Amino acid sequence: MTESSSKRGLSPILIVFFTILIDMIGFGIVIPILPLYSLHFNATDWQIGILFGCFSLMQLIFAPLLGRWSDRIGRRPILLFSILGTSLSFLIMGLANTLWLLFLGRLIDGASGGNIPTAQAYIADVTPLEKRSGAMGLIGAAFGLGFVIGPAIGGLLGHYSIQLPFYVAAGLALLNAVAIYLFLPESLNEEQRKAHPAVSGSLVQNFLQVKNSHLSTVMWVSLLSTLAFSLVTALFTLFTAHRLQWHARENGWLFAYIGMLGVLIQGGMLRRMVPKVGEKPLIIVGSVFLFVSMALLPVSSNLIWVVVASTALAIGNSLVTPLVSGLASKSADAHSQGIVLGVLQSTASLGRMIGPVVGGFLLQYDANTNNALYGISPFWFSALLMLASLVVSLRLPDDERTPSAVKRS
């Protein structure tokens, strides 16, 4: 398969980049619309939080299992399964006429959502150790570019029909699966797949299998930062609707701006900064940006300050997320990339599950206040979480090469 792809002149990393890009365009189309769409089913703030959280609950359970399966049977079949599940979930949400069908679509998407850790494992398979974090930045760039294109499309489509963005996202995911089937080679040969132990064991055993001190610290940073970030993003469109009276179109353009910053940082700047500065200092800087943005956002009362806070949010997330993945990958041997990155994805999913639920709960305390105070409770709570993440990030090892990585090289 690899030889076939080479003859076509296609780089596997480039194919993975476009795979994630198309996936994130679909994701970006839907996410800014979803909180507003759920209001059509008379969902409360609490239910909207659970709607976001249930997706991450399913990822928490299934991401390590899909990671182990990708180590055992290959990355390509898991990517196909994951993206086909995404297509089905968007179709169900578009066709939904009750709130429970909206929840069903989110649950299916979460259960099949192993595409990001599998794509990260794929890149780890084909990338030298010293270029690992920079290569992970390509996935971050695909995230960012997807959030440039996706929300802009979603905002425009949502202006005509609130269901239309879901149908378009489902179609994009289906085309993505076809492209993977036709063009993406498998990164693990048969011997590498056989070298991995059989897929078995409980969820807890999956976590214990990759336990080491370096990875534990990385995962705490991932958990706390993702929890804080997901809390903010889940409530962001409700916040701007109350503070600035924005609708889908305005939110779509702001998400596109945030995505463009992510592309610039993760697609180009990050690869030059990591060799000169190192992962740990950049994660610390990113954590500071996230803390400042979350503290500033709830007291932002006009467009300028919301854009300033959003800029800091984009910079911080663009630094922290890909570098945490790079450090986690360096803690794994060649046969365990899938399970390690799957467990990291589950850790992040735990944060994405808890964050929106807690945010929805805290938002109830602001619901009866005037618009000038709307969102202050959950957003300041997220700032405290980022402060805790910043403290933990100070404990990351100064040497970016973990003992397992040094042994491998």
Describe it for me?
- This protein has helices spanning about 1-5, 10-30, 35-40, 45-75, 75-95, 100-110, 115-125, 130-160, 165-185, 190-195, 205-210, 215-245, 250-275, 280-295, 305-330, 335-365, 375-395, 405-409.
- The model is unreliable at about 1-10, about 200-205 and about 400-409 (pLDDT under 50).
- It has a single domain (about 15-185, about 210-409), classed as Growth Hormone, Chain: A, CATH 1.20.1250.20.
- About 80% of the residues lie in helices and about 0% in strands.
- The chain starts with a helix and ends with a helix.
- It has 18 helices and no strands.
- With about 400 residues, the chain is mostly helical.
- The longest helix has about 30 residues, at about 215-245.
Tags for this entry?
409 residues, mainly alpha, Growth Hormone, Chain: A, 80% helix, disordered N terminus
From N to C, what is the helix and strand string? HHHHHHHHHHHHHHHHHH
CATH class: Mainly Alpha
Q: What ranges have pLDDT less than 50 throughout 5 or more consecutive residues?
A: 1-9, 198-204, 400-409
Structural class: mainly alpha
Task: Describe the sheet with the most strands.
Answer: none
Helical stretch tally: 18
End-to-end span in angstroms?
Answer: 27 Å
Show the helix and strand layout.
Elements: H1 2-7, H2 12-30, H3 34-38, H4 45-73, H5 75-95, H6 99-112, H7 115-126, H8 132-160, H9 164-183, H10 190-195, H11 203-209, H12 213-244, H13 248-277, H14 279-296, H15 303-330, H16 337-363, H17 376-393, H18 403-408
